[in-house]
Known about the structure:
The chain is mostly helical. It has 14 helices and no strands.
Amino acid sequence: MDELFDRFQDLLSTLATSPALAIALTLGAFFAGNRIFRLLGHPVWLPPIVISATLVSAAIAILAIDYGEYREGALWLSALLGPATVALGVPLYQQMHHIRALWRPILFTLPVAATLAAVYAVVIAALLGASPEVLASLAPKSVTAPIAIGITEQLGGSVSLMMGGLLITGVVATLFVDLTARWLSIDDPRMLGFALGLNGHAIGTARAFELGPTAGAFASLGMGLTGIFTALILPLAFRLKGI
Protein backbone atom coordinates (compact mmCIF):
# COMPACT_ATOMS: atom_id res chain seq x y z
CA MET A 1 0.00 0.00 0.00
CA ASP A 2 2.82 2.39 0.92
CA GLU A 3 4.60 1.56 -2.32
CA LEU A 4 1.44 2.34 -4.31
CA PHE A 5 1.04 5.63 -2.50
CA ASP A 6 4.68 6.54 -3.19
CA ARG A 7 4.20 5.81 -6.88
CA PHE A 8 1.10 7.98 -6.91
CA GLN A 9 3.02 10.83 -5.29
CA ASP A 10 5.82 10.42 -7.83
CA LEU A 11 3.26 10.56 -10.63
CA LEU A 12 1.76 13.75 -9.22
CA SER A 13 5.21 15.29 -8.87
CA THR A 14 5.96 14.47 -12.50
CA LEU A 15 2.65 15.87 -13.71
CA ALA A 16 3.06 18.99 -11.57
CA THR A 17 6.15 19.96 -13.55
CA SER A 18 4.06 20.02 -16.75
CA PRO A 19 0.94 22.05 -17.60
CA ALA A 20 -1.15 18.87 -17.93
CA LEU A 21 -2.20 18.57 -14.29
CA ALA A 22 -3.03 22.26 -13.81
CA ILE A 23 -5.05 22.40 -17.02
CA ALA A 24 -6.89 19.16 -16.21
CA LEU A 25 -7.75 20.36 -12.70
CA THR A 26 -8.93 23.75 -13.93
CA LEU A 27 -11.09 22.43 -16.75
CA GLY A 28 -12.44 19.61 -14.59
CA ALA A 29 -13.40 22.08 -11.86
CA PHE A 30 -15.00 24.36 -14.44
CA PHE A 31 -17.29 21.68 -15.87
CA ALA A 32 -18.04 20.26 -12.41
CA GLY A 33 -18.85 23.73 -11.07
CA ASN A 34 -21.33 24.38 -13.86
CA ARG A 35 -22.91 20.96 -13.31
CA ILE A 36 -23.29 21.50 -9.57
CA PHE A 37 -24.69 24.98 -10.20
CA ARG A 38 -27.45 23.54 -12.40
CA LEU A 39 -28.21 20.78 -9.90
CA LEU A 40 -28.61 23.35 -7.12
CA GLY A 41 -31.14 25.28 -9.17
CA HIS A 42 -28.97 28.23 -10.30
CA PRO A 43 -28.55 29.98 -6.92
CA VAL A 44 -27.64 33.66 -7.29
CA TRP A 45 -25.45 33.59 -4.19
CA LEU A 46 -23.33 30.69 -5.43
CA PRO A 47 -22.24 31.19 -9.06
CA PRO A 48 -20.28 28.45 -10.91
CA ILE A 49 -16.98 30.29 -10.62
CA VAL A 50 -17.12 30.14 -6.81
CA ILE A 51 -17.89 26.42 -6.90
CA SER A 52 -15.09 25.82 -9.40
CA ALA A 53 -12.59 27.85 -7.37
CA THR A 54 -13.51 25.88 -4.25
CA LEU A 55 -13.04 22.59 -6.09
CA VAL A 56 -9.62 23.64 -7.39
CA SER A 57 -8.53 24.78 -3.91
CA ALA A 58 -9.69 21.51 -2.39
CA ALA A 59 -7.89 19.46 -5.06
CA ILE A 60 -4.64 21.39 -4.55
CA ALA A 61 -4.86 20.90 -0.77
CA ILE A 62 -5.78 17.19 -0.91
CA LEU A 63 -3.17 16.31 -3.55
CA ALA A 64 -0.52 18.47 -1.80
CA ILE A 65 0.29 20.32 -5.01
CA ASP A 66 2.49 23.39 -4.71
CA TYR A 67 0.42 26.43 -5.65
CA GLY A 68 3.34 28.01 -7.49
CA GLU A 69 3.63 24.94 -9.70
CA TYR A 70 -0.12 24.90 -10.31
CA ARG A 71 -0.14 28.58 -11.24
CA GLU A 72 2.80 28.14 -13.60
CA GLY A 73 1.04 25.24 -15.31
CA ALA A 74 -2.19 27.22 -15.59
CA LEU A 75 -0.39 30.01 -17.43
CA TRP A 76 -1.31 28.19 -20.62
CA LEU A 77 -4.93 28.98 -19.85
CA SER A 78 -4.11 32.49 -18.68
CA ALA A 79 -2.64 33.19 -22.10
CA LEU A 80 -6.19 32.98 -23.46
CA LEU A 81 -7.09 36.14 -21.52
CA GLY A 82 -5.44 38.20 -24.25
CA PRO A 83 -7.82 37.01 -27.00
CA ALA A 84 -10.68 37.26 -24.49
CA THR A 85 -9.88 40.95 -24.01
CA VAL A 86 -9.98 41.56 -27.75
CA ALA A 87 -13.23 39.58 -27.98
CA LEU A 88 -14.93 42.13 -25.70
CA GLY A 89 -15.14 44.31 -28.78
CA VAL A 90 -17.66 41.88 -30.30
CA PRO A 91 -20.56 42.57 -27.88
CA LEU A 92 -19.79 46.28 -28.05
CA TYR A 93 -20.10 46.19 -31.83
CA GLN A 94 -23.25 44.08 -31.65
CA GLN A 95 -24.86 46.53 -29.24
CA MET A 96 -23.82 49.68 -31.09
CA HIS A 97 -27.45 50.43 -31.92
CA HIS A 98 -28.27 50.41 -28.20
CA ILE A 99 -25.36 52.76 -27.52
CA ARG A 100 -26.66 55.19 -30.14
CA ALA A 101 -30.24 54.99 -28.88
CA LEU A 102 -29.35 55.36 -25.18
CA TRP A 103 -26.13 57.35 -25.35
CA ARG A 104 -27.35 60.03 -22.89
CA PRO A 105 -28.16 57.71 -19.94
CA ILE A 106 -25.03 55.68 -20.67
CA LEU A 107 -22.89 58.81 -20.85
CA PHE A 108 -24.07 60.04 -17.44
CA THR A 109 -24.32 56.68 -15.68
CA LEU A 110 -21.13 54.89 -16.69
CA PRO A 111 -18.46 57.39 -15.54
CA VAL A 112 -20.12 57.96 -12.17
CA ALA A 113 -20.74 54.27 -11.45
CA ALA A 114 -17.34 53.07 -12.67
CA THR A 115 -15.54 55.78 -10.71
CA LEU A 116 -17.46 55.06 -7.51
CA ALA A 117 -16.74 51.33 -7.88
CA ALA A 118 -13.02 52.04 -7.71
CA VAL A 119 -13.05 54.98 -5.30
CA TYR A 120 -15.02 53.53 -2.40
CA ALA A 121 -12.81 50.44 -2.18
CA VAL A 122 -9.60 52.49 -2.35
CA VAL A 123 -10.84 55.03 0.21
CA ILE A 124 -11.92 52.37 2.72
CA ALA A 125 -8.63 50.49 2.30
CA ALA A 126 -6.63 53.72 2.67
CA LEU A 127 -8.49 54.64 5.87
CA LEU A 128 -7.59 51.21 7.24
CA GLY A 129 -3.93 51.84 6.49
CA ALA A 130 -3.52 49.66 3.40
CA SER A 131 -0.26 49.80 1.45
CA PRO A 132 -0.05 51.26 -2.09
CA GLU A 133 0.18 47.71 -3.45
CA VAL A 134 -3.12 46.77 -1.80
CA LEU A 135 -4.77 49.96 -3.06
CA ALA A 136 -3.61 49.21 -6.60
CA SER A 137 -4.93 45.66 -6.28
CA LEU A 138 -8.41 46.71 -5.10
CA ALA A 139 -9.01 49.60 -7.50
CA PRO A 140 -9.88 47.48 -10.61
CA LYS A 141 -12.06 45.00 -8.70
CA SER A 142 -15.18 45.80 -10.76
CA VAL A 143 -13.50 45.30 -14.13
CA THR A 144 -13.55 42.03 -16.05
CA ALA A 145 -10.47 39.88 -15.39
CA PRO A 146 -8.57 40.26 -18.70
CA ILE A 147 -8.55 44.05 -18.39
CA ALA A 148 -8.21 44.10 -14.59
CA ILE A 149 -5.01 42.03 -14.74
CA GLY A 150 -3.41 44.53 -17.12
CA ILE A 151 -4.49 47.48 -14.96
CA THR A 152 -3.20 45.85 -11.77
CA GLU A 153 0.19 45.06 -13.31
CA GLN A 154 0.46 48.62 -14.62
CA LEU A 155 -0.34 50.06 -11.19
CA GLY A 156 2.07 47.73 -9.40
CA GLY A 157 -0.54 45.73 -7.52
CA SER A 158 -0.90 42.03 -6.74
CA VAL A 159 -2.79 40.03 -9.36
CA SER A 160 -3.65 37.31 -6.83
CA LEU A 161 -5.16 39.83 -4.41
CA MET A 162 -7.00 41.53 -7.25
CA MET A 163 -8.50 38.23 -8.41
CA GLY A 164 -9.80 37.59 -4.90
CA GLY A 165 -11.43 41.02 -4.82
CA LEU A 166 -12.78 40.43 -8.32
CA LEU A 167 -14.46 37.19 -7.28
CA ILE A 168 -16.01 38.69 -4.14
CA THR A 169 -17.19 41.78 -6.01
CA GLY A 170 -18.85 39.74 -8.76
CA VAL A 171 -20.77 37.56 -6.32
CA VAL A 172 -21.83 40.40 -3.98
CA ALA A 173 -22.74 42.78 -6.81
CA THR A 174 -24.86 40.14 -8.54
CA LEU A 175 -26.68 39.32 -5.31
CA PHE A 176 -27.33 42.96 -4.43
CA VAL A 177 -28.52 43.90 -7.91
CA ASP A 178 -30.97 41.01 -7.76
CA LEU A 179 -32.23 41.96 -4.28
CA THR A 180 -32.43 45.69 -5.08
CA ALA A 181 -34.36 45.01 -8.28
CA ARG A 182 -36.94 43.02 -6.33
CA TRP A 183 -37.14 45.65 -3.59
CA LEU A 184 -37.66 48.51 -6.07
CA SER A 185 -39.79 46.39 -8.45
CA ILE A 186 -37.41 46.99 -11.37
CA ASP A 187 -38.00 44.55 -14.20
CA ASP A 188 -36.59 46.39 -17.21
CA PRO A 189 -34.02 43.93 -18.66
CA ARG A 190 -31.95 46.81 -20.04
CA MET A 191 -31.49 48.38 -16.60
CA LEU A 192 -30.88 45.06 -14.87
CA GLY A 193 -28.40 43.88 -17.49
CA PHE A 194 -26.44 47.13 -17.56
CA ALA A 195 -26.22 47.23 -13.75
CA LEU A 196 -25.07 43.60 -13.59
CA GLY A 197 -22.39 44.06 -16.23
CA LEU A 198 -21.18 47.37 -14.85
CA ASN A 199 -20.89 46.22 -11.24
CA GLY A 200 -20.51 42.45 -11.49
CA HIS A 201 -18.30 42.11 -14.62
CA ALA A 202 -18.31 38.55 -16.07
CA ILE A 203 -20.15 37.00 -13.11
CA GLY A 204 -22.90 39.59 -13.37
CA THR A 205 -23.04 39.16 -17.15
CA ALA A 206 -23.51 35.42 -16.77
CA ARG A 207 -26.39 36.10 -14.40
CA ALA A 208 -27.88 38.61 -16.88
CA PHE A 209 -27.97 36.03 -19.67
CA GLU A 210 -30.03 33.82 -17.35
CA LEU A 211 -32.61 36.63 -17.24
CA GLY A 212 -32.82 36.85 -21.02
CA PRO A 213 -30.96 37.88 -24.18
CA THR A 214 -31.72 41.59 -23.77
CA ALA A 215 -30.38 41.68 -20.21
CA GLY A 216 -27.34 39.70 -21.35
CA ALA A 217 -26.70 42.10 -24.21
CA PHE A 218 -26.82 45.15 -21.94
CA ALA A 219 -24.63 43.38 -19.37
CA SER A 220 -22.02 42.77 -22.07
CA LEU A 221 -22.28 46.43 -22.99
CA GLY A 222 -21.86 47.57 -19.38
CA MET A 223 -18.96 45.21 -18.75
CA GLY A 224 -17.10 46.25 -21.88
CA LEU A 225 -17.56 49.98 -21.43
CA THR A 226 -16.61 49.79 -17.75
CA GLY A 227 -13.42 47.97 -18.67
CA ILE A 228 -12.46 50.54 -21.29
CA PHE A 229 -13.29 53.53 -19.07
CA THR A 230 -11.41 52.14 -16.07
CA ALA A 231 -8.36 51.16 -18.12
CA LEU A 232 -8.11 54.73 -19.42
CA ILE A 233 -8.88 56.66 -16.22
CA LEU A 234 -7.49 54.58 -13.34
CA PRO A 235 -3.77 54.64 -14.25
CA LEU A 236 -4.01 58.39 -14.87
CA ALA A 237 -5.71 58.94 -11.50
CA PHE A 238 -3.04 56.96 -9.66
CA ARG A 239 -0.28 58.97 -11.33
CA LEU A 240 -1.91 62.27 -10.42
CA LYS A 241 -2.33 61.12 -6.80
CA GLY A 242 1.23 59.82 -6.69
CA ILE A 243 0.18 56.39 -5.39
